[in-house]
Amino acid sequence: MPNTGIIFDLKKYAVHDGPGIRTTVFFKGCPLNCWWCHNPESQKPEPEPRQKFNQKSNLKLLQQKENLIGKKVTAREVMEEVEKDIVFYDESCGGVTFSGGEPLLQENFLLALLKECRDKEIHTTIDTCGFAPYSVFEKIDPFVDLYLYDIKICDDELHKKYTGVSNNLIHGNLVRLSKLNKNINIRIPLIPGVVDTEDNITNLIRFISTLKNIKQIDLLPYNKIGEGKYEKINRKNLLGAIDFQSNLEIERIANKFKTLGIKVTRI
Ligand code: SF4
Question: Which fold has domain 4-266?
């Protein structure tokens, strides 16, 4: 059913998921399995028991009799929630962000939502890991105002080890997308010892320098939000206990990316 999909959260008044004040819709299901994932409950495409995650929502949209996280909803139901805050989007140049999980995994549901946003003149942002056939990007692209495009590790063997998939499709899609005249912000999770190594930062800078139309680079320093969740879902936290980077270290990395002449922010 193109007009129905599974989401696991909907966050209002979000200010880190694109410009202005936004509503962020979290799609369930992700083709990656990143060792540092903050939302491991987002990875499986189907709903799963809620008590494991101690995650509650006061939104009527997400309430259900079964004690599950992840709910099948219609595009219209999501839009009814989204449309309540149009006044905030208008005043702040904000809009809606489709995130996850991976929104491109439910392409028809995503397309239905994007079209409704376009009809209502609501700014749309897609937060994607980029792992989808390029044909999916072609399908949704006419209705997307901004991409938040995550890239992580340049060495493909390391990428496979830490995310479960090759980076070929992800990087290839970004190269193709960057040739269109679209707004793209690159997002990099600065996982200590994995993404923030000297070699990887150098290779990321080299890769980004070949791209066009990159408006901004968002650095996401590691935080421990997801650590406790792994135990609850009986999964090993493969990353283990790692330390945060210091502010000085993050500043040093940010300065390296600034040599590209692109705005760099820290989320
Ligand atoms: S791409 Fe994002 S949602 Fe998917 S596993 Fe990685 S961190 Fe989690």
Answer: TIM Barrel (3.20.20)
User: What angle (nearest 5°) sits at the alpha carbon of residue 106, between those of residues 52 and 166?
Assistant: 85
19 lines ligand 1 (CB under 6 A): no
Query: Whole-model pTM?
Result: 0.95
224 Cα to the center of ligand 1, angstroms: 15
73 Cβ inside 6 Å of ligand 1 = no
Answer whether 29 contacts ligand 1 (Cβ < 6 A): no
**pLDDT of the chain, 267 residues: tens digit per residue:** 669 999 999 999 999 999 999 999 999 999 999 999 988 889 999 988 766 555 567 678 887 767 788 999 999 999 999 999 999 999 999 999 999 999 999 999 999 999 999 999 999 999 999 999 999 999 999 999 999 999 999 999 999 999 999 999 999 999 999 999 889 999 999 999 999 999 999 999 999 999 998 999 999 998 877 777 777 767 788 888 788 889 999 999 999 999 999 999 999
- 97 pocket-lining for ligand 1 (C-beta < 6 Å): no
Can you tell me which residue has the tokens 């990428």? 159
Contacts for 104 with CB less than 8 Å, ≥ 6 apart: 110, 126, 128, 131, 132, 136, 137, 140
Q: Give, using CA atoms, the residue closest to atom 6 of ligand 1.
A: 34
